[in-house]
Amino acid sequence: MHELPAAERPRERCRRLGPTALSAVELVALVLGGGSGRGSTLALAQDVLRRFGSLQRLARRGPAALESIEGVGPARATALAAAFELGRRASRNETSTLRTVDDPDQALELLGPLLEGLEQEAVVVLGLGARNQALHVTTVALGRINAAGVQPREIFREAIAAGATALIMAHNHPSGDPEPSEDDVRLTHRLQRCGETLGIELIDHLVVGSNDYVSLRARRLI
């Protein structure tokens, strides 16, 4: 970016005009930081956006996918993923975590946005207080989801820290079909046992598809 006049560089334009004046390429370049051996940061930002086709598709990819782009690397990949997650969190209703959750539909209202548009499986968790008030919503796993790959400590860590007495978990099926698999049921039973030991009840596990979801509790699978 040093080949640009000082006043036209993204950082200076952002300071002078605010971030809304910058293009998507310029914003990505600011997050990426200094240039790479392949050229300027603006050129790298253009490569990144071209690779995924749109800013929206880029925002849905995890650090591993971003890191696969030459010139990005682990530090830049995690910075991009963190920037998109900050944006998602800032756009959520701040009062949503004060709601009481009494049924799967209400749980999905809080958990669904974390899974929307993802092209890989993810596990998200909603921690609840003694009166079923929502305490926290967080993503705990990203990638291939099965009974062996999801660690109970990741599921329960935030719940313990928030003082939750119960939790509801959800994960998506990128295929669009919300029908629970045998692995989904086995994972649920494993986490139920862990929750009993910790004193944190696993109330439900939602499997989310393209246009519908399945509650394992409603199916009497837990």
Q: CATH superfamily name of the largest domain?
A: Cytidine Deaminase, domain 2
Write the element-wise H/E pattern from the N-terminal end onward. HHHHHHHEEHEHEE
What form results from the Cα inertia axes?
A: elongated
Mean pLDDT: 84
Main sheet specs: 5 strands, mixed
Work out the helix count.
9
**Count of individual domains:** 2
Q: And the CATH topology of the largest domain?
A: Cytidine Deaminase, domain 2
List the strand order in the largest sheet. Answer: 2-1-3-4-5
- Can you tell me the residue ranges where pLDDT is under 50 for at least 5 consecutive residues? none
Assign the CATH class of the largest domain.
Alpha Beta
CATH level-two architecture of the largest domain: 3-Layer(aba) Sandwich
Number of strands: 5
Q: Distance N terminus to C terminus?
A: 56 Å
Oligomer: single chain
- Based on secondary structure, the structural category is alpha+beta
What percentage of amino acids are in beta strands?
A: 15-25%
> Helicity range of the residues?
40-55%
Radius of gyration from the alpha-carbon trace, in angstroms? 20 Å
Structure description:
The chain is an alpha+beta fold. It has 2 domains: 6-91, 5' to 3' exonuclease, C-terminal subdomain (DNA polymerase, domain 1), CATH 1.10.150; 94-215, Cytidine Deaminase, domain 2. It is built from 9 helices and 5 strands. The protein has helices at residues 10-17, 24-32, 41-52, 55-59, 63-67, 73-91, 104-115, 152-161, 182-198; strands at residues 122-128, 134-142, 166-172, 201-208, 213-215. A 5-stranded mixed β-sheet has the order 2-1-3-4-5, sandwiched between helices. A hairpin with a 5-residue loop joins β1 and β2. It is elongated, with a radius of gyration of 20 Å.
